[in-house]
Write a structure and sequence with these properties.
Elements: H1 13-22, H2 24-36, H3 40-52, H4 60-72, H5 76-88, H6 96-108, H7 112-124, H8 132-144, H9 148-160, H10 168-180, H11 184-196, H12 200-213, H13 216-226, H14 232-250
Length: 251
């Protein structure tokens, strides 16, 4: 059975996003209609659901096309996602230089996710020359507007004193903000700080949060890092991270 959405039922971008939570298949049909009607938020959403296969068959090349349509109409997240597709080869050949151009446009327009993604390329020299000063500035800008992942990386620059004076106090604060903002890497970083201060119970609490939200690569790396901990309770978390990694691999 398919849902039918009448022309007069075309919804706003916010309504479509909310509908995705409740009924992905019905939302997908409504998003298709709204995108065809020229609703730019729906065009960006259509790119995302095609990319994810959410309520609709996954189609990465078509997702790329819709991101491009919305990006040309000024949708900053669509521009960022157009860059992500090129960075990772979703629906096209991987091209970090093209990704960098689109991230830069959206970052200069103020999108925090684009600042973060462009900074990642600058920090690793993918598609652009390595530029840690610019990467640090972008992470800071994104962190200051609440981007949790950027907060963690800003904390790392400050902790290590890379292209900036080392500042462990500021690093700790950014790690805390990142952790409380829900970034699993920030939670891991803050747990490491707390463990170093001897606050083991709090460190374990944050490690458990990082464990629940972490992705495959993070879990693999974190499980190895935890093996080197001096406190047995922290070290004991390594097995839990390794087990969770194995579980996600089987999915």
């Amino acid at each position: 059975m398919s849902f039918q959405i009448r022309r007069e039922e075309v919804l706003s971008g916010e309504q479509l996003s909310a509908m995705l939570e409740e009924s992905p298949a019905r939302a997908a049909q409504a998003i298709l209609l709204a995108a065809g009607e020229g609703e730019v938020e729906a065009q960006a959403l259509l790119g995302q659901i095609l990319l994810d296969g959410q309520g609709i068959a996954q189609d990465q090349p078509l997702a790329l096309r819709w991101f491009g349509i919305a990006a040309r109409r000024g949708h900053l997240m669509a521009r960022n996602m157009f860059g992500r597709c090129h960075e990772h080869g979703w629906g096209c050949s991987a091209d970090a230089a093209t990704a960098a151009r689109h991230y830069r446009i959206a970052a200069e327009a103020g999108l925090d996710w684009a600042m973060y993604n462009f900074a990642n390329l600058l920090a690793t020299g993918r598609g652009v020359a390595v530029d840690h000063l610019q990467a640090l500035a972008l992470y800071r800008r994104a962190a200051e507007v609440g981007h949790a992942k950027s907060m963690n990386l800003l904390g790392r620059y400050l902790e290590e004193g890379q292209v900036c004076p080392p500042d462990s106090v500021a690093a700790r604060e950014w790690y805390r903000c990142s952790a409380e903002g829900g970034d699993f890497r920030g939670q891991f970083s803050f747990a490491a700080v707390l463990a170093g201060e001897g606050r083991i119970d709090q460190a374990v609490d944050w490690l458990e949060k990082a464990l629940a939200g972490g992705n495959l690569n993070f879990l693999r790396v974190a499980s190895q890092a935890l093996l080197g901990a001096t406190d047995p309770r922290i070290q004991g978390m390594a097995a839990q991270f390794a087990l969770r990694y194995a579980e996600l691999q089987r999915v």
